[in-house]
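Researcher: Let's walk through a ligand-bound prediction step by step. First, I give you the protein sequence. Second, the SMILES string for zinc ion. Third, you return the three-dimensional complex as structure tokens. Ready?
Model: Ready.
Researcher: Here are steps one and two:
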Amino acid sequence: MTWYRALPFLALGVMAVQASIYPVPALGESVHRYLARVDPALGELHVKACFAPDTPDALVAFDERAAQYLDHAVAHHQSARHALRARGTEISLHGLSDVACVEYQVSLDRAVSTSRRGPAIRVGRDLLLSPDIWLWRPFRRGAPEAIEIRFDLPAGVNVSVPWPVVDTSGPQAIYRVGGRPTDWPARMAFGRFEITEIPVGEARLRLAVLDGQPPADREAMRRWVEAGGKAVATLYGRFPIPSVQVLVMPIGRGREPVPWAEVMRGGGDAVHLYVDQTRPLEEFVADWTLAHELSHLLHPRIDSRDAWIYEGLASYYQNVLRARAGLLPPTTAWSELHAGFQRGLNATPPDRTLAQVTETMASDGLFMRVYWSGAAIALLADTELRRRSRGRLSLDVALARLQACCLPSNRWWTGPELMHELDRLSGTNVFTTLYRHHVHSARFPDLREAYRQLGIDARSGEVKLRDDAPLAPIRRAIMQGPDGPRQAGPPGPGGSADPVDSAPRAVSPSRG
Ligand SMILES: [Zn+2]
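Model: Step three, the predicted complex:
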């Protein structure tokens, strides 16, 4: 996420980690079937929820505002209709043991707000909303149960959701809700857009470009997202997760091509991009935001008390991946990293540790200290792994093994847990050593020795690369990736052939 750029738009909440309150239903349990019908104006939603094998104890919503938008709810009970009432976020079905189905109506119109953090917003004529404002989930003995959802959509209307598709054989796709913790946020969209499936190797990026004034160039957005997906796949020869929801929201003129973007994990993995659609494709391709957000898919969801780990990984790879994809010359990528490290250094208060600054960055705005400390530590880890193993190991290899063992992940990870796992997967102690050294340090990570060894000379203010430095081959390997120098450039009119599609490389995990 790019928190620091959100400040002009958002009243930031506390970035506290909440452990999932409820256990997650396992596959193979009873599945309840929901049919959701939206009206052509996208203002009302009618939901029919049918239960199998029997009636749950209650229906529960995961947004406290859901009851405000709920209009009628009735249970079909012993061939009679029984009116239901929400109490807070719960509709009790207690005493209605043989209810086969419940029907309810939700006013989406009443949920629409103008705040980007609101429960629903209009994007042009389309609607972007949190599923938690209308999805009343079946609970039994205090735990949520899995649901399969179909949508009945008016002609020309489509839906984008983060949930995995389990069946496409019928006229409408069936989505399964239930793998992820119920308190992880998500967004979905209804509108007159197309869902474009972008293949990146075996993975699928499910792109929806919402309406805008003026409308966005959908083909340009597709090429931009495809180039970003392929750049991430250069890391270890495949895209890190099998399927991702990608939503592009054209919000009109902004100070940059992508004024705001974020990754959400509720229901499935998703990247949401709020764009200035009046800009040409070249500006999107040159921008770092998409590479940053897609790089977050390389790691599981991590406790925000260690946000420097995941923001550091994404800030490091936003430059490395663009260099490897041929979108940045290596010298520029090093200059961008160096400029980031300088911003981090300048934002480092003398008396507070990295852990302390990470915890308060949303209120005191010291994002640069957090993001670029993490990126510096990623560079130190990458360099050390490559140096110790003579190039056999790298941060790429450690993350490839993490992907093979643990992604997609349906749970929170703590920072130390991730560091231990990366150590185990690389057979080293590089990650936990760096973690312990830096998390309680009040200093920005010292890169002077790494710069000297790698041949990065920034003393004149301008970055110069020296090939006579002892670790210059490692420096070159970082920006070239395992396949060496690449010829690929920005996406051309017909798209570009990419070795990722034709020859996916498998990196087998070794457990040592
Ligand atoms: Zn981020």
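Researcher: And what stands out?
Model: Residues 1-2, 292, 296, 311, 314 surround zinc ion (CB under 6 Å). Confidence is low (pLDDT under 50) at residues 6-28, 492-512.
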